[in-house]
Structures are given as C-alpha cells and as structure tokens.
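General statements about sequence and structure are easier to judge against a single worked case. In the encoding step, the backbone of a single protein was reduced to a row of integers, each denoting a local shape. The record that follows shows the chain in one-letter code together with its fold in token form.
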Amino acid sequence: MHPKGSKNMSKAAPNPPRPRRRRRKSPPAHLTPWRNRLHEIIFEADTRLGKAFDVGLIAAILLSVLAVSLETVDSISARHGEFLLTLEWAFTVMFTLEYIVRLISVGQPMRYALSFFGVVDLLAVLPTYLSLVFAGTQGLLVIRILRLLRVFRVFKLAQYIEQGDMLLQALRHSRYKITVFLLSVLFVALIMGTLMYLIEGDQSGFTSIPRGMYWAVVTMTTVGYGDIAPQTVTGQVVAGFLMILGYSIIAVPTGIVSAGLMQASREEQPISTQACPQCSLEGHDYDALHCKHCGAELNPGS
C-alpha cells in the first residue's frame, strides 16, 4: 500500500521554463547590383570611374571654398557678387544631390548619416539653406574643406590614415591623464588669479577673480599679451614663479601623448582604405572579409 499523498508525489514535477534564446541579428542584406555599382563609384577609388568621381569632387570642394572666401572680400563682392552667389548655390545643389546619392548607395543610410563624414557632408550644405532664414551663415560653408580628408583614400595614401588613427588612439589612451592635467591647470589658474586679485587689485587691472584667471592662463602658456601686468613687488614675484611653472607645465602633456603614441605603435596593424557597402565606414584590415563595425561582407560580389 502506498502512503497518503504518494499518488500526488508520483506525479512528475513541471519542467522549469526554458530560457529564451536571443535572436541573432540577421546579416545585412546585400545591395542590389545598381546600388552596389553606385557604391563602388562613390565610396571606392579603385576603379577609373571611382577615382574620376573623387578627383572631380575634390576640385569642386576647392572651388566652392574659394568662392565663399572671395565673397567676403568687399572689392570682389561688389563686382562679382551675383556670380559668386550663383556659383555658391550651384555647388550647394550639386553637393545636396551627392549627399542623397550617398545615402541611397549604402545598405544602412542612418549609420552613414551619423558617421563623421556623413555629418560633415550634411553640414557642407546646410549653411546655404539656413542663409534664407538667417543672414550671414554662408561663411560657415568653409567647413566643406573638411571633406578634403577623403584625399588620403582617393590617392591611396593609406599610410597617412594609419598614422592619423595611431594619433587618435594615443589620445584615447591618454584621455584620463590629459583630463587630470587640464583640471590641475585650471586649479592653478584659479588660485593664482585669486592671489593676484588680492595682491594687485583694481589699480593694476585685476578687477575681478576671472580677470586674474585670464592673466594666469596667459602667463602660464607663455603668451604674455601685456594688457595686464603686476605693479607691486609681491605681484611680480608671484608672476615670476608662475612663468617658471608654465615652462614645466608645457612639458607634461608632451610626455603623456608620447607615452600614448608608443603604446599605440606597438598595437598598430595595417589597414586598408576600403569602405563598407552597408555602413560606409573604413579602417578595416587588409585581409578582412567582413566589416568590423556592422558585420556586413566587404566584397559581397566576389
């Protein structure tokens, strides 16, 4: 005979709930043939058409920046103002169409739009349209000069890109030390500015603590404008001490960045100038098959 409750105990215990499996992100869809061809022309410089497009784009950027600069000269603007304005709008419309085509030719347009070059390309056309509402914003069009950074990819100057990446990596490694250094300089400027305000006062031009901090920063950086100078002996002694301190301060960030550069050089790996067809980002290894940013294939057609 079974004891009481044995019938219930003989029932199988309910299985524990299975943990949900994380859905794997599906790989980005390949571009259609015409979009892939468009991407090859616009983002790559390995083909004849791609290089011709980039060289023409660089020439247009230089001419547009030159036109904006000449428009600020009064004598030239008085004679050729209408022509320069027409030229400016022509370049803006051309760059706007190019920006739209770039968005079409990548698999993930939003990633390109939020990337460095995507933001620069957008800012290169916005000032002209903003000038319809806010006067004087055309001068911001000189930001188009940043688009010339593509010249390193166009002419296959990959070694310069590698050195630039190494410098950025060194700054990333040293960012905490640089932050501490800048805060220390700020504290020294605050203390010295306050001290000079108490010693010199309004008679010598130290009318406030922020004014004293301005003098301290100018003195520490060895600029020495001369618009404010201590008149008392005590103030001159403090100024001399701050000048000597300024020379020692200049050496600190040099050592920090140099150490970061040495660390980055040990981690250096050769990179290619190929752009991802999905997110348009660069900086891949020469033997890479997939994008290190979004995971898409770099050469889907091969």
About this structure: The domain at 172-266 is CATH 1.10.287.70 (Helix Hairpins).
